[in-house]
Amino acid sequence: MNTVSPPAGRVTRRKLVCALGAGLATPLLSGCAARGHEKLPPPTRSGSRLDFVFPKGDSYLDISNAHTGERTALRFMKNGRTDRRALQRLDWLFRDWRDGEAPSIDPRIYWGLAALSDAVRRQGHSGQITLLSGFRTPQTTRLLQSRGGGAASNSYHMRRRAADIQFAGIPTEEVANIAEWLQVGGVGRYHGSDFTHIDSGPIRTWRG
User: By CB neighbour count within 10 A (0-12 exposed, 13-18 middle, 19+ buried), where does 23 fall?
Assistant: First the structure.
Protein backbone atom coordinates (compact mmCIF):
# COMPACT_ATOMS: atom_id res chain seq x y z
CA MET A 1 0.00 0.00 0.00
CA ASN A 2 1.38 3.42 -0.88
CA THR A 3 2.23 5.94 1.79
CA VAL A 4 0.07 9.04 1.42
CA SER A 5 1.16 12.49 2.49
CA PRO A 6 -1.44 14.89 3.93
CA PRO A 7 -2.96 17.24 1.33
CA ALA A 8 -1.36 20.64 0.99
CA GLY A 9 -2.88 23.60 2.73
CA ARG A 10 -4.92 23.85 5.91
CA VAL A 11 -5.64 20.45 7.43
CA THR A 12 -9.32 20.02 8.23
CA ARG A 13 -10.98 17.04 9.89
CA ARG A 14 -12.43 15.96 6.51
CA LYS A 15 -9.01 16.11 4.83
CA LEU A 16 -7.43 14.13 7.66
CA VAL A 17 -10.07 11.40 7.44
CA CYS A 18 -9.63 11.21 3.66
CA ALA A 19 -5.86 11.03 3.90
CA LEU A 20 -5.96 8.29 6.52
CA GLY A 21 -8.57 6.45 4.50
CA ALA A 22 -6.26 6.19 1.50
CA GLY A 23 -3.55 4.47 3.49
CA LEU A 24 -5.48 2.44 6.06
CA ALA A 25 -9.10 1.80 5.19
CA THR A 26 -10.00 2.35 1.57
CA PRO A 27 -13.80 2.31 2.11
CA LEU A 28 -13.51 5.57 4.03
CA LEU A 29 -12.81 7.32 0.75
CA SER A 30 -16.30 6.81 -0.58
CA GLY A 31 -17.65 9.66 1.53
CA CYS A 32 -14.79 12.09 1.02
CA ALA A 33 -16.00 15.33 -0.49
CA ALA A 34 -18.49 13.88 -2.97
CA ARG A 35 -20.42 17.15 -2.80
CA GLY A 36 -23.06 17.96 -5.35
CA HIS A 37 -21.42 16.45 -8.42
CA GLU A 38 -23.52 15.67 -11.47
CA LYS A 39 -24.30 12.02 -12.04
CA LEU A 40 -21.72 10.26 -14.16
CA PRO A 41 -22.95 8.75 -17.44
CA PRO A 42 -22.54 5.01 -18.08
CA PRO A 43 -18.92 4.28 -19.05
CA THR A 44 -20.03 2.42 -22.18
CA ARG A 45 -20.24 4.17 -25.56
CA SER A 46 -22.11 2.07 -28.10
CA GLY A 47 -20.02 1.33 -31.17
CA SER A 48 -16.76 2.84 -29.88
CA ARG A 49 -13.49 1.00 -30.39
CA LEU A 50 -12.70 1.37 -26.70
CA ASP A 51 -15.81 -0.62 -25.79
CA PHE A 52 -14.62 -3.37 -28.13
CA VAL A 53 -10.92 -3.32 -27.16
CA PHE A 54 -11.01 -2.81 -23.39
CA PRO A 55 -12.78 -6.07 -22.40
CA LYS A 56 -10.23 -8.02 -24.43
CA GLY A 57 -7.21 -6.28 -22.89
CA ASP A 58 -5.55 -5.83 -19.52
CA SER A 59 -6.91 -3.44 -16.88
CA TYR A 60 -3.44 -2.98 -15.35
CA LEU A 61 -2.50 0.63 -14.59
CA ASP A 62 0.77 2.00 -13.24
CA ILE A 63 0.23 5.70 -12.54
CA SER A 64 2.27 8.33 -10.69
CA ASN A 65 0.84 11.67 -9.57
CA ALA A 66 3.25 14.38 -10.74
CA HIS A 67 2.31 16.71 -7.87
CA THR A 68 2.27 14.39 -4.86
CA GLY A 69 4.78 11.74 -5.93
CA GLU A 70 2.30 8.96 -5.11
CA ARG A 71 2.30 5.90 -7.33
CA THR A 72 -0.38 3.25 -7.72
CA ALA A 73 0.00 0.04 -9.71
CA LEU A 74 -2.99 -2.31 -9.89
CA ARG A 75 -5.63 -4.08 -11.95
CA PHE A 76 -9.09 -2.63 -11.46
CA MET A 77 -10.87 -5.53 -13.17
CA LYS A 78 -10.58 -9.09 -11.90
CA ASN A 79 -12.28 -12.03 -13.57
CA GLY A 80 -14.46 -9.65 -15.55
CA ARG A 81 -15.65 -7.78 -12.46
CA THR A 82 -14.73 -4.30 -11.28
CA ASP A 83 -12.58 -4.18 -8.15
CA ARG A 84 -14.20 -1.41 -6.10
CA ARG A 85 -11.26 -0.97 -3.76
CA ALA A 86 -8.91 -0.60 -6.72
CA LEU A 87 -11.15 2.12 -8.18
CA GLN A 88 -11.14 3.93 -4.84
CA ARG A 89 -7.36 3.90 -4.80
CA LEU A 90 -7.32 5.34 -8.31
CA ASP A 91 -9.92 7.96 -7.34
CA TRP A 92 -7.66 9.08 -4.50
CA LEU A 93 -4.68 9.38 -6.85
CA PHE A 94 -6.86 11.48 -9.21
CA ARG A 95 -8.07 13.79 -6.43
CA ASP A 96 -7.69 17.56 -6.39
CA TRP A 97 -4.44 17.42 -4.43
CA ARG A 98 -4.73 21.06 -3.37
CA ASP A 99 -7.61 20.37 -0.96
CA GLY A 100 -7.98 16.58 -0.90
CA GLU A 101 -11.38 16.37 -2.61
CA ALA A 102 -11.60 12.85 -4.05
CA PRO A 103 -14.93 12.03 -5.72
CA SER A 104 -15.47 9.02 -7.96
CA ILE A 105 -13.89 9.40 -11.41
CA ASP A 106 -15.71 8.29 -14.56
CA PRO A 107 -14.61 4.65 -15.09
CA ARG A 108 -14.39 5.32 -18.83
CA ILE A 109 -11.27 7.38 -18.11
CA TYR A 110 -9.70 4.33 -16.46
CA TRP A 111 -10.84 2.16 -19.37
CA GLY A 112 -9.14 4.53 -21.80
CA LEU A 113 -5.93 4.71 -19.80
CA ALA A 114 -5.81 0.92 -19.48
CA ALA A 115 -6.33 0.45 -23.22
CA LEU A 116 -3.65 3.04 -23.97
CA SER A 117 -1.25 1.43 -21.52
CA ASP A 118 -1.93 -2.04 -22.91
CA ALA A 119 -1.28 -0.78 -26.45
CA VAL A 120 2.08 0.82 -25.65
CA ARG A 121 3.22 -2.17 -23.59
CA ARG A 122 2.62 -4.34 -26.65
CA GLN A 123 5.07 -2.02 -28.45
CA GLY A 124 7.75 -2.74 -25.84
CA HIS A 125 7.26 0.30 -23.59
CA SER A 126 6.62 0.25 -19.84
CA GLY A 127 3.12 1.72 -20.07
CA GLN A 128 3.87 3.82 -16.99
CA ILE A 129 1.68 6.95 -16.79
CA THR A 130 2.33 10.31 -15.17
CA LEU A 131 -0.87 12.08 -14.14
CA LEU A 132 -0.60 15.86 -14.40
CA SER A 133 -4.24 16.65 -13.65
CA GLY A 134 -7.27 14.57 -12.78
CA PHE A 135 -10.23 15.97 -10.86
CA ARG A 136 -10.24 19.72 -10.23
CA THR A 137 -12.55 21.70 -7.98
CA PRO A 138 -14.06 25.01 -9.15
CA GLN A 139 -11.74 26.75 -6.67
CA THR A 140 -8.68 25.17 -8.28
CA THR A 141 -9.97 26.04 -11.73
CA ARG A 142 -10.34 29.70 -10.72
CA LEU A 143 -6.84 29.65 -9.22
CA LEU A 144 -5.36 28.30 -12.45
CA GLN A 145 -7.29 30.88 -14.47
CA SER A 146 -5.96 33.68 -12.26
CA ARG A 147 -2.44 32.44 -13.03
CA GLY A 148 -3.09 32.37 -16.77
CA GLY A 149 -3.22 28.58 -16.86
CA GLY A 150 -5.97 28.43 -19.48
CA ALA A 151 -8.27 26.16 -17.45
CA ALA A 152 -11.77 26.18 -18.99
CA SER A 153 -14.71 27.18 -16.80
CA ASN A 154 -16.71 24.19 -18.10
CA SER A 155 -13.78 21.78 -17.95
CA TYR A 156 -14.41 18.05 -17.86
CA HIS A 157 -11.83 17.96 -15.06
CA MET A 158 -14.45 19.53 -12.79
CA ARG A 159 -16.98 16.94 -13.95
CA ARG A 160 -14.71 14.02 -12.94
CA ARG A 161 -14.32 12.99 -16.55
CA ALA A 162 -10.82 14.03 -17.67
CA ALA A 163 -7.12 13.38 -17.25
CA ASP A 164 -3.97 15.15 -18.44
CA ILE A 165 -1.27 12.53 -18.90
CA GLN A 166 2.18 11.62 -20.11
CA PHE A 167 3.38 8.13 -21.03
CA ALA A 168 7.00 7.24 -20.34
CA GLY A 169 8.95 7.24 -23.59
CA ILE A 170 5.93 7.97 -25.82
CA PRO A 171 5.58 11.30 -27.69
CA THR A 172 2.43 13.32 -27.03
CA GLU A 173 1.31 12.98 -30.64
CA GLU A 174 1.49 9.18 -30.52
CA VAL A 175 -0.46 8.98 -27.24
CA ALA A 176 -3.11 11.29 -28.69
CA ASN A 177 -3.32 9.28 -31.92
CA ILE A 178 -4.00 6.08 -30.00
CA ALA A 179 -6.58 7.77 -27.75
CA GLU A 180 -8.28 9.25 -30.81
CA TRP A 181 -8.37 5.85 -32.54
CA LEU A 182 -9.88 4.28 -29.40
CA GLN A 183 -12.69 6.88 -29.43
CA VAL A 184 -12.37 7.49 -25.71
CA GLY A 185 -14.01 10.91 -26.09
CA GLY A 186 -12.21 14.26 -26.29
CA VAL A 187 -8.49 14.28 -27.09
CA GLY A 188 -6.29 17.36 -26.75
CA ARG A 189 -2.67 17.60 -27.91
CA TYR A 190 -0.57 20.00 -25.83
CA HIS A 191 2.86 19.81 -27.42
CA GLY A 192 4.18 22.92 -25.70
CA SER A 193 3.55 21.45 -22.27
CA ASP A 194 4.16 17.88 -23.46
CA PHE A 195 0.95 16.20 -22.35
CA THR A 196 -2.21 14.64 -23.73
CA HIS A 197 -5.69 15.43 -22.45
CA ILE A 198 -8.40 12.79 -22.61
CA ASP A 199 -11.98 13.09 -21.45
CA SER A 200 -15.18 11.07 -21.70
CA GLY A 201 -17.18 13.80 -23.42
CA PRO A 202 -18.21 13.80 -27.09
CA ILE A 203 -15.60 12.65 -29.61
CA ARG A 204 -13.57 15.67 -30.72
CA THR A 205 -9.93 16.73 -31.05
CA TRP A 206 -7.95 19.96 -30.63
CA ARG A 207 -4.47 21.34 -30.13
CA GLY A 208 -3.53 23.49 -27.17
Answer: middle
